Recover the amino acids of this structure.
């Protein structure tokens, strides 16, 4: 992955993250990862030296909490941030554009995978229809009717179970943090393609 932040932009973005309140280093790393929808997660070796430099410049202060260190923006840091608001807006625009590009790429990948899955399902269904068997047509029809009812129930249970599981996952996630635009777009794309794939399989 090419450099995400231009020279000096990461330091500025760290100040912006600290403006909302003190954070530990790992919280800053997680906040950056969340902002990029999990596609970019800076290493500790990237973040801590920049925090150290910001502290040297008096833009950030630290507080010790046992073995952990909490970082706070100083008045000088706030003044620096205010002077560079326009630059910060440009950084945010760049991040948003990166997230949108990734969402587009994910959608295309999902569509390609779903097309391949539909082709495989169609081929399997065709092979099953043409496979000869020792049972008579009437017997097969009666068997399919009974088995079809059972499969319908199983399919409905699978859909219901999936819905319930995803609702729990979404509520647990939302209790700790907001959904990112990338996550929402990915959910929408996956569900749309799943719906298309299932309908295609039912009509084949």
């Amino acid at each position: 992955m090419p450099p995400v932040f231009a020279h000096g932009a990461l330091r500025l973005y760290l100040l912006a993250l600290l403006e909302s309140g003190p954070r530990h280093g790992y919280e800053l790393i997680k906040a950056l990862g969340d902002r990029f929808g999990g596609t970019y997660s800076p290493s500790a070796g990237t973040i801590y030296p920049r925090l150290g430099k910001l502290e040297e410049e008096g833009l950030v202060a630290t507080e010790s909490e046992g073995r952990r260190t909490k970082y706070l923006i100083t008045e000088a840091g706030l003044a620096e941030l205010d002077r560079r608001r326009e630059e910060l807006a440009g950084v945010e625009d760049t991040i948003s554009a990166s997230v949108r590009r990734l969402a587009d790429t994910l959608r295309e990948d999902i569509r390609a995978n779903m097309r391949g899955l539909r082709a495989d399902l169609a081929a399997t269904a065709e092979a099953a229809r043409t496979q000869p068997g020792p049972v008579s047509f009437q017997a097969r029809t009666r068997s399919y009717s009974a088995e079809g009812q059972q499969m319908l129930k199983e399919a409905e249970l699978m859909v219901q179970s999936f819905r319930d599981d995803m609702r729990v996952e979404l509520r647990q996630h939302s209790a700790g943090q907001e959904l990112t635009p990338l996550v929402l777009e990915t959910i929408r794309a996956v569900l749309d393609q799943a719906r298309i794939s299932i309908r295609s399989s039912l009509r084949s």
In short: The chain has two domains: 9-83, 100-203. Residues 148 and 154 are 10 Å apart (CA to CA). The helical segments are 9-19, 25-35, 44-56, 75-83, 85-130, 137-176, 181-203.
